Amino acid sequence: MIDFLQMTVSGIAVGSSYALMALGMVLIYKASEVPNFAQGEMALLPVFMAYMLIYTYGQSVFAAFFGALAFAMFLGCFLEFAVVRRAKNPNILGLIIITIGLEMVLLGFVSWKFGADQRVMPFPISSYSSFMFGNVYISTLDLLTLVAALVIMVSLFLFFRFSRLGVAMKATQQNETAARLMGIRTNRVKMITWGISATVGTVAGLLLAPVFMEPYMMWDPLLKGFAAAVIGGMTSLPGAVFGAYIVGIVEHLFGGYVSMEYKAVVAFAVIVIVLCVKPSGLFARHYVKKV
Amino acid sequence: MDMKRSYYDDVRLFSSGVTVFWFVALMAFLFFYPFVFTNYYVYMANYIAINIIVVVGLNLLVGYTGQISLGHAGFYAIGAYATITLMTVAHFPFLAALVCAGLIAAVFGFLLGLPALRLEGPYLAIATLGFGLTITTVIGRIEMLGGRQGLHAPDLVIMGHHLTSDRQFYYLAVTITVLLVLLARNITKTKVGRAFIAIRDAHIAAETMGVNLVLYKTMAFALSAFYAGVAGGLYAFVLRFIEPELFNLFLSVFFLTMAVAGGLGSVMGPIAGAIVLSFLDLQLRNILSIPYIGDWLRDLSASYFSLTGVSNIQFVIFGSILIAIMLFEPLGLYGLWIRMKKYWKPWPF
Amino acid sequence: MKNTLLAVLMGALLVLGFAPAGHAEVGVTDTEIHIGQWSPQTGPAAPWGAVARGTDAYFKWINANGGIHGRKLIHHYFDDAYNPAKTIAGVKQLQEQTGMFAWVSGVGTACGLAVKDYLMERQIPWVGPSAGSRHWVTPPQKHLFNVYPLYLGDAQLLTEYAVTEMDKKRIAVVYQEDDYGKQGLEGARHVLEQHGMELAAKVPVSISDTDMRPHTMKLRQAKADAVLVFVTPGHVARLLGTGKAMNYEPQWMSTTTCGDFPLMIAITKGLYEGVITASFGMAQPTGNVGGIEHINNPKNKLMAKYKTEVYDAYAADDERWGYTFTTGIGLAEPLVEAIRRAGRDLTREKLVAELEKMENFQGLMGRITYGPYDPDDPLCRIGQQEIFLQQCTADGGSKILTDWQKTEFIPMSE
């Protein structure tokens, strides 16, 4: 029983970083209707930027993290403005390839600048300290990630519900033409959505970096985040978070009780099963296609 | 224009004498290629030919049927492993093993096509991606297939001839490629191809018109998997040693990239994509040995980036080329070609 | 069409431009010896790219000191991104267009196996593949000389030490799912069987997996008191960190791959202290057991010399002086030594003969011995079978635990 509890808690812990990636993916999918394969690298570049601010320019950790988040906002906006928006009559496949191209360019720049060696990101909290509830451990960093994921989800919810910009974003997602007719600058709204998405991803990156930092650090979280977003229905923010926790918990329970070899891929088997039952994910509203 | 009463014209291999001429010229070029070029370029041609097979197959699925697959490395792996295993364990001759391997891959394609019936867009992307990752994990667990330690390819013998050099392999690979490309071209012109296109453009309308969605969607997956399987079988003999890690997600993404950047929904597009991107893939590593540019890049790295990571410039260039192609022309290289043709057609007026 | 024309022209130029140079041996001219090498400079395996850069700096240093018998070593290394298809392409291009006299090192088992037949059929010497795999000597090849000690040996030595010296009762193995990991598992089992013991747990790690929590849980459940880890440095760092967070701290032990203590201390933020790893050199344990060696301030004279004369003078500014870099030097040493011994009149045949005569040659690594070619005896090409154990100190130094130990070769089961 204690094992089961521990696995569930660890699953939730790892699910939190997937959740942040999934949130970023969902935001962009809702705005531009593309699964964004550059999501991981949009976080990678700011994370390495923070590293550079700390080591090359001697900034404090907090200043560097703040700088990274601001840079992520800028990067997201820039990519949408300079690249994605420029696509002529884009179809979904073309957009996917564009995001793959962006992924390569960003990853290329990071590895070009920093080389392949592992780095060490300073962090105010030691990644080795942990809390103990009874016999169940959770590391402080995991707890922080969990809190960050929940805070971000709640603030996104409030943002979409109560702020003018948030409502404009929702309107743009639901019906772009109508939104434009209502005087919303949909292009600008999309651009800001990309910025927010990159910022959310960067939070995940900054929380992963103290444990493990190298140019390929975001691949696994990206794939799992994508998986989580799809389970949640790709257009639903709570769905993405819920999907992320499902992926995390299933991985850990499966790894603990059934087989460690298949742990890394079990998430995808879960997806296929979920999708067979609910083809557009757990939380997406079923849409009717007009013929 | 008369009403079209039969599709015979579509199925004909050559629509005019000009086509025959170009076809013969191409065949002659392919035949003499190994005599003109050094062995290295022959190897490159083999690599490209194999990629062409996969991408043409993938195009049947993505370009014609409108599905998406991020799991083709999985079929590729199945083909590679099945070919070697059939030859070493069941002592099949090479060609028979290759065809059987393609069929085995097709069965898996059919099976993957079943859940795909209900999925589309990102949902299908993630499901196929999961398939690609799972299949290599499963192969890595099977001791008969060498597990994670890999598998050596046996000698390649066709009708008593040992194929050892790249030149000999070239004729084998190119023959198979040409046959499979012609097959794909003809499939797209037949009832099956028209059903695929109908599904891509409007699957509900297609079903109303009597296109059997279950049959044709799974068939598209199976066909596409067959192509990937055959290509995988050939690839195993190019490398002569295979292990599960070779068939990773990057490979699946690379296949899709070649298909889309080449231009979906045409036969020539994916071929162009496979040629250009495989060439870049193999040749970009030499970028630092280009005179002047290489030195300039090194200087740039030394001042602003790092010298140890300078090779990563390949990613930057490859990614930029992909973005550029897709931004300028959603139909990829094929679209560029069409545009160029249109532009020059009335020349010199 | 333009491109095709260009390609045809270039092809013709290539054919014409590389007419035979009128020399006895490919890749050897009056002033130059061409040596090839592949390594991943990009992609997830890029940290091993430092091996090739180490060899490169080493060759530059040799050239600056007059070369070998009046010839300079021209080093051609290319990036294959750990993709065998690219390895083949690069090897063929260099071999056929420039002409290599021999190949040195080369990272990766799959990459090496993809070109092994090609090189062996053409009787091109290849010294020191940079991966400890039994494939290199199963069956032994006349022109392929292994230098890198097998991971199998690491596992044997570590297990033996844990059982006899540290009196550990429950030994677990964490292994990466490939040749590297499987050798570790096999070696550990082999030794435990001799002691009538069994593995407490075996935990597989898939390379793409970044989350080590369930693996650590498994180890903790099994109450393992010594854990042998056969994974990448990054995974080791995460395993140790997760273990620490879970209050689980067994004796961690690892391989030569994770023996770069300054790096490991940095990426684990000091957690690596006390970890025992195998080592294939870079320090001289004989007469120094119990002593402490620092890679940045080496006591070993040869190492100190390479640090100042090779690394400081020829490595790029952002290169790290670490084990990957020095491995590049160590793997090339036997080749350089054999070329030197072969004399001015250099041929491949002579090179192979000199390598075969090599007995207890010691450079940066352990003693290297080859024998006359015998297709049934893997040991005639295995080169180095000795390793020793070291323990990490708080500041990244290596405390030498044992002298050189000879390990047993276990043939591959087919």
Features:
heterotrimer; A: 291 residues; mainly alpha; 3% strand; B: 349 residues; ABC transporter involved in vitamin B12 uptake, BtuC; two-stranded antiparallel ribbon
Give your account of this protein's structure.
- In chain A, 71% of the residues lie in helices and 3% in strands.
- Chain A contains eleven helices and two strands; from the N terminus they run ααααββααααααα.
- Chain A has a two-stranded antiparallel sheet with strand order 1-2.
- In chain A, strand 1 and strand 2 form a beta hairpin.
- Chain A starts with a helix and ends in a 14-residue tail after the last helix.
- The relative contact order of chain A is 0.19.
- Chain B is mainly alpha-helical.
- In chain B, a hairpin with a 2-residue loop joins strand 2 and strand 3.
- Chain B is globular, with a radius of gyration of 21 Å.
- The mean pLDDT of chain B is 89.
- Chain B contains 15 helices and four strands.
- With 414 residues, chain C is of the alpha/beta class.
- Chain C has two domains: 26-149 and 304-385, Rossmann fold (3-Layer(aba) Sandwich); 151-279, Rossmann fold (3-Layer(aba) Sandwich).
- In chain C, the strands form three sheets. In chain C, strands 6, 7, 8, 9, 10, 11, 14, 15 and 16 form a nine-stranded mixed sheet that branches.
- The longest helix of chain C is centred in the C-terminal third of the chain and has 20 residues, at 323-342.
- Chain C is globular and about 65 Å long.
- Chains A and B meet through helix 4, helix 9 and helix 11 of A and helix 6, helix 9, helix 11 and helix 14 of B.
Largest sheet of chain B: 2 strands, antiparallel
Highest CATH level, the class of the largest domain in chain C: Alpha Beta
| CATH fold label of the largest domain in chain C | Rossmann fold
Helix-strand pattern of chain C, N to C?
Answer: HEHEHEHEEHEHEHEHEHEEHHHEHEEEE
How many helices of chain B? The count is: 15
- Gross morphology of chain C: globular
Helix content of chain B: over 70%
Name the strands of the widest sheet of chain B in spatial order. Answer: 1-4
User: Which pair of chains forms the biggest interface, and how many residues does each contribute?
Assistant: A-B, 53 and 54 residues
Radius of gyration of chain B: 21 Å
